[in-house]
Amino acid sequence: MTTTLPAHVDVLVVGSGFAGMGVTARVLREDPSADVLVIERADDVGGTWRDNTYPGVACDVPTSLYSFSFAPHSDWSHTFARGPEIHRYLRGVADDFGIRDRLVTGCALLGAQWDEERCVWEVTTEKGDLTCRVLVAATGTLSTPKLPAVPGLETFTGHTFHSATWDHDYDLSGKRVAVVGTGASAIQFVPEIAPITSQLHVFQRTPAWVIPRMDRTRGPIERWFYRRAPWTLEAQRGAIYAYREMYVEMMAKRPKLLSIAHTIATGFLRLKVRDGGLRKRLTPGYTIGCKRMLLSNDWYDTLQRPDVELVDSGLASITPTGVVDAAGREREVDAIVFGTGFTPTEPPVAHLLRSSDGRTLAERWGGSPRAYRGTTMAGFPNLFLMYGPNTNLGHSSIVYMLESQSAYVESALREMTRRSVDAVDVSPSAVDEWNASLDADLAGTVWNTGGCSSWYLDASGRNSAMWPTFTWKFRKATAAFDIENYRTLRATGGPDTGRADRSTPSEKAAI
Predict the structure, then answer these.
(1) Most buried residue, 274, 285, 474, 511, by CB count within 10 Å?
(2) What digits encode the pLDDT tens for the residues 342-396?
(3) Is residue 78 part of a domain?
(4) CA dist., res. 6 & res. 8, Å (int)
(5) 0.85 cut: is pTM over it?
(6) Do residue 453 and residue 402 come from a single domain?
(7) Domains: count for the chain
(8) 191 with 301, same domain?
């Protein structure tokens, strides 16, 4: 691990979660001498699995698939791994693949602007300034907590925190606690804290479809077997991948098949919740799959505890000593825990990245993120965005998508070297064609037609989050860098001096 920044680096990766580590490992595996540096705002690698330490944090994708294909792991203790275990895995990957040697921690990105003349990104960080030829933004979409604009929040005299920044120094034992939100995080931590609080008020805006979590413990004999026969891990990963790909038929290709999932979810709800009134309050009014399906075996049990109250009228305001629902009833509480998610369709990093004319990526997007192959944006040369627009999944592992993007980035580096060009800038027409195809494919999916309001839809109402079809199609699209859809630039004086010469479309074939 390095503590100082160089004046210039060829490839700068921002972030050291699955995305940043995946692309860095890919580049280093192909070229161990590559001039690549990773900056991280925190003090360790791990991204969301470092930051999210709330009670019960776990993965909701089978860990055999939610891990790097190039770094198989035989010692997962559960089929759905717990957060601390995933963080340990990522730390091991950082050590094993030389990433830690290229890492600068405590180094948040403050801003970056493309210099058209020198063909470099001018980068400002907490530890100083530097330039880079290629900038990889791997900050993730679930990295910045979202707090609701609730009237009176600033007047509350009790304790508040977001689930993504859990305050372990604050003891919830015997406290009266309000939880705001019933999404993927709340469904994990609420069952964990309910036994220790004196009273728990769970504020639900919209109920979620919940299905059983088919989790089990992996015993020592099973793990020993995986160590002795590593090929079985690859076979298991392949089987889970193939099974998960069939979900696309339900969510995107044939939404009518979602009746199968609906039957499972409603049957599970009826089995767990005998009270018809409560069951009605927990039944969503939208098609299953429109929002993220949640996995839990103890969510419904927890909501039926005598010391837990489901408040489905929503949170209207906050007073100095309590919370007020939409019906005007106040409940006095000692603490408020927000499980209100993140800002995936408005990634904060987009406000930090500027094109040569000074406009930020967020300004270019205008509230509706668009990219080519989910990775590059016109007017932002040599910028690669990991987990970019329309790369999120409703059926499989995002790690698979990140590895696909990593291959695309590495292929771009090789192609630029082979053609002796300093920068590439995707053509606006390529971006438009790619997104028009995405919009057409998304039009009939459950995410667009299921009757819900989800974070998949951006401020304009467009689905700028989801990948609409099989993931192997995305891998095929990103297997090799298609420079024919890019404009190329050269800096005659090298990375630090000289003016860039932009080629015209007619010149591309000659480069």
Answers:
(1) 474
(2) 776 678 899 999 999 999 999 999 999 999 999 999 999 999 999 999 999 988 9
(3) no
(4) 5
(5) yes
(6) yes
(7) 2
(8) yes
